Amino acid sequence: MHKEFSPGPDAEKSFRFPDKGNIQRRKRCGEFLGRSAAFLAAALVVLLTVSIIYFIGSKGLATFTVHGVRVTEFLFSTQWWPDRPLEEGGPAVGSLTFILGSLLVSLLAVTVSAPLSVVVAVFMVEIAPVWGQRVLQPAIEILAGIPSVVYGYVGLSLLVPFIRNYLGGEGFSVLAGFIVLSIMILPTIISVSTDSLRALPPQWKEAALALGSTRWQTIRLVLVPAARSGLITAVVLGLARAFGEALAVQMVIGNTRTIPHSLLDPTITLTSAITMDMGYTIMGSLWNSALWSMGLILLFMSFLFIMVIRVVVRGGMVR
Amino acid sequence: MNARLADRLATIMFWMGAAAVLAILALLLGYILWHGIRVIDWRFLTTPPQTIIAGGGVGPQIFNSFYLLLLTMLISAPLGLLAGIYLAEYASRGRVTEYIRLSIEALTSLPSIVVGLFGLLIFVNMTGWGYSLMSGALALTVINLPLMVRISEESIRSVPSELREASLALGATRWETMWRVILPSALPGLVTGAIIAAGRVFGEAAALLYTAGMSSPILNFSDLNPWSPTSPLNPFRPAETLAVHIWKINSEALIPDVRRVADGSAAVLILVVLLFNICARWLGRRIYRRLTAT
Questions:
Q1: What is chain B's mean pLDDT, rounded?
Q2: Which of B27, B121, B277 should be substituted to probe chain A, the one whose Cβ sees the most A Cβ atoms within 10 Å?
Q3: In a domain, A54, yes or no
Q4: Does residue A170 fall inside a structural domain?
Q5: Which chain regions cross the lipid bilayer (chain B) (predicted)?
Q6: How many CB pairs under 8 A join A and B?
C-alpha cells in the first residue's frame, strides 16, 4: 500500500516510516526477555527441588550428626522414648514401628486397590468404551478431587464405628487405615492404567482376536502383558501416594505406638507421627529432629518410587 | 472350563469392578451430602466457629480457603505457565531439560506433609512471617506448580503445529507466536486444567497445618486495609482453612457439636470441589466454542 504514498516535503516531518532496524531490535529484545523469563521459571522448579532436598536433608540428618543417634538404631529399633529422662535410661528414638506401620498400610492398600483398578481400566478401554468415557471417567475425576481430609473424615465417622460394632476392637485400626487409603489411590492407579492400555497399538488386539481368542484371552494374554510397564508405573504411583498420605490415615489408624498383631489393632505411621507431634516439640530438640528424620525417610521413599518408575518405563521401552 | 464360559465370567467381573467404583463414589457423596446438607444454612456459612459451646459456623474458614486459593493461583499460575512455555517451546533435548523434568516429577510425587515441613522451615521460620496466609500460599505453590507446568505444557503442545509455523513464517518471533497465536488457542485446556488444579488446592490440608496455621484471628470484615492485623485481607495473618478445620476439630476440639460442624464443613468442601469440576468442563467447552466459532 505504501508504494502509492508519496509524502510531500511537509509530510515528511510529521510522518515517518517506522525504522526497520528499530522494530527488529525491539522484537529481538522481547524474544530475549520472554525466553529468559520462561527459562527462569523452569529453573525455579529445579531450585525448589534442590532446596527441598538440602533443607529437609540437613534437618533430618541432625538426629545423627548433632544428637549422635546411630542410623541403624533409628531405622531398626522399636524403642521410642524421645523424652525419657537420663536416670531412666535416657531418650531413644527407634522409629521402626512407624516405618513398619507406613509400609504395612500402604502395601495392603495397593494390594486391594491395584487389581480393582486394573479391572476398571480394562473395562473403560476394552469392554465398554462409550459408557466408560461418559460415566466412569467423570466419576473417577470426582473421586480424585475429593480432599484427603474428607476421606479421613468419612473413615472416622462411618468406617471406624462400623468396624467397632461389627468386627470388634476399637475401630481405629490397620483395617480402617488401608481401606481409606485403597479408595483414595483408586483414581491414581485407574487413570494411569487407562492411559497405558489406550496407548497400545490396535493391531495387537486385532491380531489376537483374528487368531480366534476370546476377548478375555486377548485381555489376559495380550493386552495386560503388553501394557505391563504402564500398569506397574500406575501401581507404584498409587503406592507412593498411599505411603505419603498424612491426615486421612492419621484420623483412622489410632496412633498407638505398637506393632499390630491383627488387622483390627491400631498402629501408627511416619506421617501421622509428624502430623501430631511437630507442633508440640521444640525446634532442634532430639524429639523434633527425629520427626525431621522421618520426613527425610518420606522424601527418600518418594524419590525411590520415582526411580523405580523410571527403570520400569525404560525397561518397557527396550522390550 | 471352556474359553467361552471363561470369557462370559470375565465380562461379568469387569462390569462388577466398574459398578463397585461407582458404588463407592455414590456411597461417599451420598453419605457426606446426606449428613451435611441439613447443617448448611446461612448462619453456618457466615458465623465464626465457637471454642467451647455449640452452634458455631465456619465463615472465616471458608473465606480463608478462597483467599488462600487466590493467593496460590496468583503465584503459581504465571510461574507454571512460563515454565510450561519453556518446556514446550524452547527446551532442547539436553541435560538441563532432563533435570527440569526430573524435578517436576520429584515435586509431583512429594508427600504434602513433606512440603508442609519445608514450608515450616523456609516460609514460616526463615522469613520470620510465622504461621501466615503467605507462607501457606507459598507451600501450596510448591504443590501446585508441577501440576500447572504439566497442564500448560500439554495444552501448548496440543495446538496444531501449522498455526505455529504460519505465524513464524509471517515473521513473528517465537515469543510473539506464543502469546498471540498459541496461547489463545491453548486457552480451553489451560482454563480447564487450572480450575481442576484449584479444586486440589482448595482441599489441601496436610501442607497447611504448619504453614498457614491452625487458628484464625478474630476478623473484622469491614476492615479492608491489608496491613491491619484484624483485616481479613492481611496476607501475613494466620489462617485456618476449611480442610484444616475439619481435621482440627476432629482431633482436638472442645465443642460438643463436632459432628455437626464437621459434617457441614465436609459437605461445603465437596460441593465447592464439585462446582469447580463442573465449572471447568463448562468453561472449557464455552471458550473452545467461542474460539472455533462452532
A1: 87
A2: B121
A3: yes
A4: yes
A5: 12-34, 66-87, 99-123, 129-149, 181-202, 266-284
A6: 261
Indicate whether A8 belongs to any domain: no
Q: Which domain holds residue A190?
A: 96-281+304-318
Judge if A244 and A111 occupy the same domain: yes
Instruction: State the CATH number of the domain containing residue A149.
Output: 1.10.3720.10
Residues in chain B within 8 Å Cβ distance of A241: 109
CA distance A240 to A192: 14
A219 in the same domain as A105: yes
As a 3-state breakdown, chain A gives helix, strand, coil percent values, each rounded to 5, of 75, 0, 25
Q: Which of A64, A112, A111, A109 is nearest to A297 (CA)?
A: A64
Q: How far apart are CA B289 and CA B35, in angstroms?
A: 39
Residue B261 distance to chain A (closest CA, Å): 12
Same domain, A59 and A136: no
Give the burial string for B201-222 (b: 16+ CB within 10 Å, else e): bbbbbbbbbbbbbbebbebeee
Element at B274 (helix H, strand E): helix B258-292
B117: closest CA of chain A, how far (Å): 8
Q: Are residues A157 and A271 in the same domain?
A: yes
* Distance of residue A312 Cα from the nearest chain B Cα, in angstroms: 15
114-153 in chain B: CB under 8 A from chain A: 114-115, 117-118, 120-122, 125, 142, 145-146, 149
- Domain co-membership, A51 together with A170: no
Number of helices and strands (H, E) in chain B? 11, 0
Residue B238 has a pLDDT of: 85
CA B153 to centroid of chain Cα atoms: 18
Average pLDDT over residues B266-272: 91
Total domain count, chain A: 2
In chain B, what are the domain boundaries? Answer: 38-292
Percent of chain A scoring above 90 in pLDDT: 42
| pLDDT digits 0-9 by tens, A99-157 | 999 999 999 999 999 999 999 999 998 888 888 888 888 899 889 889 999 999 999 99
Between B226 and B141, where is the model more confident?
Answer: B141
Q: Indicate whether A50 belongs to any domain.
A: yes
Establish if B157 touches chain A: CB-CB under 8 angstroms. no
pLDDT band at B216 (very low <50, low <70, confident <90, very high): confident
Question: Residue A159 and residue A180: Cα distance in Å, rounded?
Answer: 9
User: To the nearest whole angstrom, how far is the Cα of B168 from the nearest Cα of chain A?
Assistant: 13
* pLDDT, tens only, B29-73: 999 999 988 888 887 888 888 777 777 778 888 988 999 999 999
A129 and A231 housed in the same domain: yes
Mutate: best of B14, B140, B251, B279, partner A, most A CBs <10 A: B14
Question: What is the pLDDT, as a whole number, of residue B289?
Answer: 80
Would you say residue A215 has pLDDT above 90? Answer: no
CB contact under 8 A, B105 and A306: yes
Binary contact (B86, A30; C-beta < 8 A): no
CB contact under 8 A, A45 and B100: yes
Question: Within 13 Å, how many C-alpha atoms sit on residue B258's CB side?
Answer: 15
Query: Are residues A182 and A267 located together in one domain of the fold?
Result: yes
Verify that A42 and A137 share a domain, yes or no. Answer: no
3-state secondary structure of B109: coil
- Of the listed ranges B88-92, B218-222, B245-249, the one predicted with least confidence: B218-222
